[in-house]
Structures are given as C-alpha cells and as structure tokens.
Amino acid sequence: MNDRIVTVFGGTGFLGRRIVRHLCKRGFSVRIASRHPDRGKKLFGSDDPQLQSVEANIHDERSVADALAGA
Questions:
Q1: How is residue 3 annotated by DSSP?
Q2: Membrane-spanning regions, if any (predicted)?
C-alpha cells in the first residue's frame, strides 16, 4: 500500500468511481469526498482499509479543507 492519500471529489459519480478503483489498484489510499458519504461506503464497501468516505461540498471552503487535510 502507498503512504499517500489521494482525495477524489465526486468519487461516487460516473467518472469518479473509475478513478477511485484505478487508484486503489495502484495501491493508493483514497479518500472519497462527497455530499453523500454513505454512497461511497455502499459502492466500495465500508471495510476496505484503503478507502475513506467523507462528507464535503465543493462550494464550502471549510468542508473542502477538511476533506483535503492530510492528503
């Protein structure tokens, strides 16, 4: 597993899903930033240690900063 965390905004969408899967296959830890974090857990499973799903709204500067913390 890679030490780096990649945050993907829109990770539950059509393109974002594919990006998340690709990054996971490459060994990255992925943080899925979405308005509905439960969708990320449903799509990718909540028990994968490589994945984290957090709530974020691209129009809210604070939630974006929180989603990017440590990435």
A1: S
A2: none
